[in-house]
Each structure stands twice: as C-alpha cells, then as structure tokens.
C-alpha cells in the first residue's frame, strides 16, 4: 500500500509537520527525500532497503555514485540530489561556525568537522584559521593520505596562516579506522606544528580527531 493510503498521522511528511523532523526515524527522513518508492514498495520500504544496504546514514552519504546507483530505485538524479543536500549542510554549518567565537561555539565546530571528515575513506588534515577574536577566517583541507610529520609540512601551514593573517589555528584530521584515540605520531605532529606556528606568534588552540561519530579534542584531554 502506498504512503498516500496510510492514515494521515502515520505519513512521514505529516508527522514531520506536526512533530518536527527529530521525531522521524532515519528511514522516514530518507523516504521524504526519495519522495516515491518503486513497484511493490513504498518510499519508506525503499528507504529501509537503502539503509540496510549501507548500514548507516554516514555510509550512505559516503557511497560513490556507482555504489549508490546499484540499488534498485536509485539513480544518478537521486545521487546528485543527495550530494547537494550534504554540501548545503556543510555550508550551513560553516556559516554557523563563522558567525561567532569558535571557542564559544565548540558544538558548531564539532558538527562541521564531523560532517566534513567522518565519511572520508582516506586521512585528511584540515586547518581552521582564526583571527584575534577567534572568529573563523577560513577552513582548508591541506594534506591527504597517511598523515605523519613527513607528510604534513609545518612550513606550508605557517605560510597559509600568514596568508590569512591568522592569530590562531585549530587542527583537525580523521581516522578512517574509526578509532579516535591519538597515536604517538599524532602527538608528535601536533607538537611540531605548534612550535612552528609559535615562531610567527600564531596560537594553536586545539586539534580534533574525527573517527566515526566521535570528535576527540586534544585541548579537552590536556594534550596541548
């Protein structure tokens, strides 16, 4: 039976209007995005199939076009729409993060970094450049691949900090393994970057590690 034939109080769109988006399940939210199902399946049934295939929303967002379009009922148009939604979410969080003092809105920073990094399949090193009032000047992905002292160059980070006339920075990188605990290499890299930036009077405020749904802070751990 199609969703239009369901009782009004059970339809995802009506429930969202009445109770808000947070009241809906992942499958119901995805069903609203999909709009229609396929022969023999409602949009909710199709959404459940998609989530079963990928396991989590994070994995779904990280899926390639080929992986996504393998599912019956999905196609290039849906993939493009999904990527557009994801990018709009990233930009909205970036705007939220830029709106005030980054240190006074740590949740905005965490949400932005999670959305930016949690689904990446390779390690990515980001730097958020801040002014003297800790307002965001820019957020840049500077290095990709296996991140060590040999592959993340302090001089390049210093050059970008001077380019933006930054007074402080926040580092972030992801662990595709899903383990957020910092390695000895992570600590050594952080110390090397902190020392290099201190020479040009740029403060290192924090270093976040994103792993799955976790976002670990060096500052909160007392490691800075």
Write the layout of secondary structure elements.
Layout (H helix, E strand, L loop, with lengths): L11 H8 L6 H9 L8 H12 L2 H6 L2 H5 L6 H23 L7 H12 L6 E7 L5 E9 L9 H10 L4 E7 L9 H15 L4 E9 L2 E4 L7
Parallel strand pairs: 3-4
Antiparallel strand pairs: 1-2, 1-3, 4-5
Helix pairs in contact: 2-3, 6-7, 8-9
Write up this protein.
By secondary structure, the chain is of the alpha+beta class. Helices cover 45% and strands 16% of the residues. It has helices spanning 12-19, 26-34, 43-54, 57-62, 65-69, 76-98, 106-117, 154-163, 184-198; strands at 124-130, 136-144, 168-174, 203-211, 214-217. The radius of gyration is 21 Å and the shape is elongated. The mean pLDDT is 84.
């Amino acid at each position: 039976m199609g969703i239009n034939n369901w009782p009004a109080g059970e339809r995802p769109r009506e429930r969202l209007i009445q109770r808000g988006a947070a009241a809906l399940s992942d499958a119901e939210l995805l069903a609203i995005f999909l709009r229609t199902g396929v022969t023999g399946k409602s949009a909710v049934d199709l959404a459940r199939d998609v989530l079963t295939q990928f396991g989590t929303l994070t994995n779904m967002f990280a899926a390639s076009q080929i992986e996504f379009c393998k599912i019956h009922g999905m196609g290039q148009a849906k993939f493009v729409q999904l990527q557009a939604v994801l990018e709009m979410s990233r930009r909205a969080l970036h705007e939220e993060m830029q709106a005030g003092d980054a240190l006074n809105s740590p949740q905005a920073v965490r949400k932005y970094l999670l959305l930016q990094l949690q689904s990446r399949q390779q390690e990515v090193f980001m730097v958020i450049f801040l002014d003297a009032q800790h307002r965001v000047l820019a957020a840049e992905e500077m290095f990709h691949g296996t991140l060590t002292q040999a592959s993340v160059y302090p001089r390049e980070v210093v050059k970008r900090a001077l380019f933006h006339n930054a007074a402080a920075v926040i580092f972030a990188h992801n662990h595709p393994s899903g383990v957020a605990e910092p390695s000895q290499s992570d600590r050594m890299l952080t110390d090397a970057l902190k020392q290099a930036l201190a020479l040009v009077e740029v403060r290192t405020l924090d270093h976040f590690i994103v792993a799955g749904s976790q976002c670990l802070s060096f500052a909160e751990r007392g490691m800075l």
